[in-house]
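Team,

Forwarding the record for the chain on the shared tracking sheet. I've put the sequence and predicted structure together so nobody has to dig through attachments.
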Amino acid sequence: MSQDLPISHRNDLSGPDFMVLQLGDTLIYNVYLLPETASWADSNLDTDPTEALAASLALAHSANFKMLMMGDFNARTASLVASSSHPAHASEDNAVPSTRGRWLLRVLAEHGLALVSGATRFGPKSGAFTSFQGTRRTVHQEKLLVPQDTLGHLETSCGSLGDLRDAKDKCSPENLQSTSAVLQLLPRLLRASQRHL
């Protein structure tokens, strides 16, 4: 962790397959969930990681923390969104949303989080295929989730970021998954969120 930021690891809110960091009154969730076809029960885990994540988010939400989440949820959401007030999505992946994808959208709606990755407001390529394996093409399932009251600020902030990973579109899916991009945006997102409280 950076020595320049007052970040602490919240082991009490972390769980199997996710780590929670605290910066002020904001919790940053970094998540990797096994694919739905993998059985967590066959591993050495005592708790279903999705249940542990949902419980952690509920606890954080009830304690009035601001939350950001990023990671690979192995959750196909296609072009669905958690709320009609969230930015529209246009995924090139026409697969039916998965059970976990629908679960993720319900969790986001419960905790006031919006899915940013793949939003059409960030350019026509935001929902483009990102994974190519033989003839199979999918939209990579990494996601950035932000408090819904910061969406407008995120849209204007992306244009002010420096070039990341040599991508042409600063709000491309690759940039919105980048930890450095999130850390650059974090102070601005927090200020925007505080103005809405």
